[in-house]
């Protein structure tokens, strides 16, 4: 929206023991299972109107090239060695955990003892094996210094502090391979086919793969052209350790820049409980989008989702947001201000003088002036909830201003038409700005609103998203359409 080139990458991490076991359980080859699951994610992104410049699968040949190049670099620099490893291993998490992060549990039905990782709650088993290790312990101080000098390297702040606490106890060297006798589904270690790459070292390298790594020209200027370092890597809070400790350490070891920011979001729950197939409280996003509309779900996720704290998904809340905010504020203001009854000329009135703001319009005028800064600050810091709240706080004021102006009375009095035009202009300008700022969140509905307001395609960028930057002076460019309700009543399934 700001006119900058963007690399937006997503995809699927497809190697590891749990994939191997799931495929065996389904009677499929690993790649067949991965093809099926990866396609499902792509179908979801398409249904949700999620755009990306790169969809990366870790089973792609280009990724194997990148992973082996990084491995060879770390090996040549002396950061990888072959050693003996034993510890608590979680198949589900694809990770070893120190004893301090493991808790003993008792099965209430059988009385049998078992152990879980306290961080994830997943079961762990004591495992002993020979494998390759990365000298993670050598990076405790460097990682600490990085976080101390960059207080916004990890967002939200609570996650930043969490990682700093992990580092205070020191780091132990990290297992970065698995014996082929136990794991066959993975990228072979360069020069040693008896081992395959540890899934997280493999998976994390995808962020380099999408930039064309290994680069032929390794100058900083060439890396920047390729898109490295990443401005933001957005991850779930459950995989923060891998992205905020292991990944930066790998990059530091290879003398590559670390991501500028790691954004760790919280999770969605339902009924205040973690979504689980066994509990039966999983929300199917395809079904939700079919019922409420794609843009409605996108708005709800961005408006109600938590960056720091988990948020609870509720169909009733989705319906409520649609009725009160999307239909009641945004759609209602558009319909009223473009209606033939109040605006028979179907024209956007001329902008009133900014030097003589009517006292009744002052509160709205000030909100419209401050809105770009509020949205910019919120979106730049990945606080989408703050952005949507600022937009709808302005729309609430705009609706109040419209009602207070009583244009249905003004239209009947020719002597009051100047005031009528001012009321209508503020309503249309408020709707225009709201639609512009909502483009990343509700792309389809925003485009429809801007079409109805006759905003040209080349006037929908950030530079036009400020007070008074819409519409030309000629009659044709100021002509607006009176259409069907933008947000008609929902027809929900019973």
Automatic annotation (TrEMBL):
Supply one GO BP term.
methionyl-tRNA aminoacylation
Family matches, as Pfam families: Anticodon_3 (PF19303), tRNA-synt_1g (PF09334)
Catalytic activity reads:
tRNA(Met) + L-methionine + ATP = L-methionyl-tRNA(Met) + AMP + diphosphate
The EC number of this protein is 6.1.1.10
Q: Which UniProt keywords apply?
A: Aminoacyl-tRNA synthetase, ATP-binding, Ligase, Nucleotide-binding, Protein biosynthesis
Q: Name one GO molecular function term.
A: ATP binding
NCBIfam families, A to Z: metG (TIGR00398)
Q: What is this protein called?
A: Probable methionine--tRNA ligase, mitochondrial
Q: What is the originating organism of this protein?
A: Linnemannia exigua
